[in-house]
């Protein structure tokens, strides 16, 4: 139990209250004897019985309150254990940052690979253009020269290599 809670103080004061009430009853009984007034034995029995009943009720209340505190403490312990299992905000933020960094690195790698592929394609297209240009120039030169026999397909393919 937490020390200093209001309910705990009330429970610890219950026996003192019972003793206080018994003291009042004893004081009242003594006061009536000193004044010379005789009390009725039945009234005295009823007073004693009421005091005993009050003590019994206070003890029962104290026991019930103690049981209730035990149950509350048990539930608090359960809640504390569940709360300890939950990751903290800092842990969640760290995990999210790690995941984001990993995703960004993967994306960066993909973009770098695509940029390399584009550069390779540009180079290939440039080479193809150059080869086609040479083929066309060769064809033009062959068509303009009447003495040269017309090349075959094989001849043209050899020019590209």
Q: Overview of this structure, please?
A:
The protein has 161 residues and is an all-alpha fold. It folds into two domains: 6-86; 104-160. 86% of the residues lie in helices and 0% in strands. It is built from four helices and no strands. It has helices at residues 6-34, 41-85, 89-144, 153-160. Helix 1 (6-34) runs antiparallel to helix 2 (41-85). 0% of the residues are buried. The mean pLDDT is 83.
**Helix vs. strand class:** mainly alpha
Distance between the termini: 92 Å
* Percent in strands: under 5%
Count of beta strands: 0
Radius of gyration: 52 Å
- Major beta-sheet overview: none
User: What does the overall shape look like?
Assistant: rod-shaped
Low-confidence stretches: none
- Overall pLDDT, averaged? 83
Roughly what percent helix? over 70%
H-E order? HHHH
Number of helices: 4
Question: Structurally, how many domains make up the residues?
Answer: 2
